[in-house]
User: What shape does this take?
Amino acid sequence: MLPSRTLNIGILAHVDAGKTSLTERLLFDTGAIGRLGSVDAGDTCTDTGELERQRGITIRSAVASFTVGGTQVNLLDTPGHSDFIAEVERALGVLDGAVLLLSAVEGVQAGTRVLMKTLRRLRLPTLLFINKIDRAGARGGALLADIRRLLAPVAVPMTSVTGLGTARATSVPYSLEDPRVRDWIAETVAEADESILADLIGAGTGGRAADDGGPPLTGDRLRAALAARTADGSLHPVYFGSALGGQGVGALIDGMVRLVPPAPVGGGSEPRGTVFAVHQPPDGERTAYLRLYEGELRPRQRIELHRAAADGTSETLTGRITSLQVVGRPPGDDGPLTPGRIAVLRGLPGIRTGDRLGPPGDDPAGTALFPSPTLETLVRARNPARAAALRAALLTLADQDPLLQVRPAPDGATSVLLHGEVQKEIIAATLHQEHGIEAEFAPSRVVCVERPSGVGEACEEIARRGHTGPWATVGLRVEPGTRHSGPVFAYETELGALPHGFHQAIEETVLATLRRGPRGRAVTDCRVVLTRSGFVGPLSTAGDFRTVTPRVLLRALDRAGTRVYEPYHAFEADIPLAALAPVTARLAALGAEFAETTGDRHSWLVSGFLPARHVQEFQGLLPALTHGEGVWTSVPSGDRPVREDAAPRQDGPL
Assistant: This one.
């Protein structure tokens, strides 16, 4: 008998908090797997890649499932390192809820805070699991206080711990039938639920039942309030336990099933869904994980997928599903994929992460959450004969991660946009181990872009007499576009005035020229209009237009003027009281723009925006400025104009 409902739950954590171990324990304790895998041994169920086994970290999202009663739970084990935060963000869009892990020893870490901010912004139902209670140095009450101060103001402990910090540590669920426990937990729930607050106030003045005939505060009423407030993201149940030892995991499973509601199912008949992960083994068939929201999908069905291209345009992929395996169903079960479930699709060689099934522009998962990467590196094959193979391998990796942008660069190199240095290491190792290519990476540089400041026009015409040079007339006007519109090409000339091949040559050359710009930086958010055109048959060729167009465009850009923009990070620095002056002084010297500074008896919380080129530098300075007590979190937050007194220093233009 098939489960009556499905939950898609993400397992998230800072690096080394134990989420892959927790995934293994959840699958083992529910009978989904017959033996426990080990991160150290490299034989876990979800970390199947060679690099993941070697490094003991999760790089790509993986899906596994187990069943409890009538509920199937699909687990997504997501990356924990900040360089792969885009992978995490995409996974969040297809989830019904999440489990955020913390180590009882290390406590609230920078990566934990970044993840929790995203979860709270999305109001995604989130349970907290405090792992490693059996390790020396594990904390209980003090850690719960840190959670309420730094992560979630309304954190409700659901289990008690004895023997904390020892091998004998145990975790026992609180019983809501115990009046003392019920009242104690209700006091915390009341911070997020007005009906429970009214019950407590009524009980303190003679009881609500005596005042207005309302029901007493029972265990069932408190459980209903916990479920409702967990569902809307206003409170977070907390479970203490150990993934390796299994303590507290049963209570966590019960919390998943009881407190996380499945996402509502759409009523449309047309299929709508999101591709949130793509796997492409070398010389193997590409597979894609898709979450369905409406309609049905079956094997052999023809579908149409939509995606946004890097230049802001939209693309469409049409193909037929040759194989569809619904996660959680036995192999060979070819039943349809229904709303709320996840399936592995085959037969679509061009499918990419982020592709959407449904009307163009529809984004049911909210996948466009994360800004573009802020670093660029140039990659070359150590063996020049492998240059083409290197570029093909990088394009394959980009299909699995659309935020990993790949494009040709001068002198046979390939340009790759990145989130961080660890990501570069992973790419290098993947190229070597999976594709047999030794690659060399240039030092990473911050990516700046340019935008037109005004309007500029230029034209180059075929002379009436004695013409020499390319046989092409091209006139272009450059003007600012709306933010995030990318480069847009338009016509004021009649489309039939030139042969189609000449029109195509002009448009392709305009877009290619804008990608490198007059100073090597991409020019974006602009509108380029073809104002004049002409040719002489049979002398004119498409090559003539490809030669003339860049010259005209660069002159028009020069007359319009451009301004350089650099990427920024939104940051928060949690620092000791005594460190406020040196920290803010150093941030100001690096060009930070401050948003808010608040403090209490524990620390100061400084927030603002810092140029991305200074983030790594300041992270290195923070321990000395705060005597090792500062906590730094930052995420990309778009770009801003470069101040003329603080132009980015770069080894070559980007």
Remarks:
- The mean pLDDT is 85.
- Residues 542-560 form the longest helix (19 residues).
